[in-house]
Amino acid sequence: MKIDFDIKKNLKTVITGVVVVLVLIISMVLSFSSKGTRRTFVFPSVEDGEYIVESRYLPKNPLKDNITYYIDELLLGSQVERTKLIFAKNTRVLSCFTKDNVLYVNLSNDLLNISDNVIPIKEGIDLLKRNIKQNFGGSKSVEIYVDGNGVFENY
Question: In three state form, how does the secondary structure of 68-116 look?
């Protein structure tokens, strides 16, 4: 059985096939090199009782999991002016893991430092939990610790 295919007679078919293959290759390359995952951040405004919602693309970080990387970005603060920090500067994530659908976040004791342009600690904890639940709905609850000690355990 010999298949006789004449390119000149079937030029439209060949061009269409090449275009389809190129479109598939380009779409695959673009999907793998995307900007990252779109995440929302809620920050306290300088005005009382107001919140600023910010949206950012977070690229994949090979050194951290998505939740830890997100919390690190949240702790750095907003890219918008007229917002307060959730916790004092230099607060960082010591550990973060999920067990039985509960997310455990252990933060450094820098969180306890009181300074200007920072909301009260209890409000910061609530806002941290709100941000995490809004972006990572898989956790049943979020437990926050400071240097291994529970905060507002009876709360």
Answer: HHHHHHHHHCCCCCCECECCCCCCCEEEEEEECCEEEEEECHHHHCCCC
Q: For residue 49, is it left (φ>0), alpha (ψ between -120 and 50) or beta?
A: left
Cα angle value 152/84/116 (rounded, 5°): 85
| 55: β partners | 40
pLDDT, tens digit, 9 for 90 and up, residues 36-81: 788 999 999 988 778 999 999 988 877 788 899 999 999 999 998 8
Do the beta carbons of residue 118 and residue 111 sit within 8 Å? no
Are 90 and 108 spatial neighbours (Cβ–Cβ below 8 Å)? Answer: yes
Other beta carbons within 10 angstroms of residue 12's beta carbon come to: 8
**Amino acid symbol at 131:** N
